[in-house]
Amino acid sequence: MKVLYFAWLKERIGLAEEDVAPPSGVANVADLVTWLRTRGPGHEAAFGDARVIRCAVNQDLATFATPVAANDEVAFFPPMTGG
Predict the structure, then answer these.
(1) Cα–Cα distance between 19 and 80 in angstroms, integer?
(2) If both were cysteines, with which of 12, 38, 39, 64 could 45 make a disulfide (CB 3.0 to 4.6 Å apart)?
(3) pLDDT in tens, 22-39
(4) Segments of the chain assigned E as strands
(5) CATH number of the domain that 26 lies in?
(6) How confident is the model over 51-62, as pLDDT tens digits?
């Protein structure tokens, strides 16, 4: 699974992207976030308040209930504003 980080998530984690192999119990975005938080202090800091994070799975906006699979691309980013 490819995980992409944008804006301050990228800064806190120290990576723009990484390839990960989550354990079999990771079924949706919420499970993925829970698992990613265990990967180190940068991940913990980035995902400390999931309410301020948006996500996309395979370039489609998603919710934390969206299922994820081994070959997916999951992106995390702060809320965006337009204007």
Answers:
(1) 25
(2) 12
(3) 999 999 999 999 999 999
(4) 2-5, 17-19, 54-57, 60-62, 73-77
(5) 3.10.20.30
(6) 899 999 999 999
- Residues belonging to the chain: 83
Which structural domain, as residue segments, surrounds residue 20? 2-77
Contact 49, 37 (CB under 8 A): no
Residue 55 contacts residue 62 (beta carbons within 8 Å): yes
Q: Are 74 and 5 in contact (CB under 8 A)?
A: no
| Residue 82 within any structural domain of the chain | no
Q: Is residue 83 part of a domain?
A: no
Q: Closest Cα partner for 51 from 63, 43, 35?
A: 63
Give the DSSP H/E element, type plus range, for residue 43.
helix 41-46
Domains in the chain: how many in total? 1
For residue 26, give both structure tokens. 């990771």
pTM over 0.90, yes/no: yes
Structure tokens at 75: 């992106």
CA dist 2 and 41 (Å) reads: 20
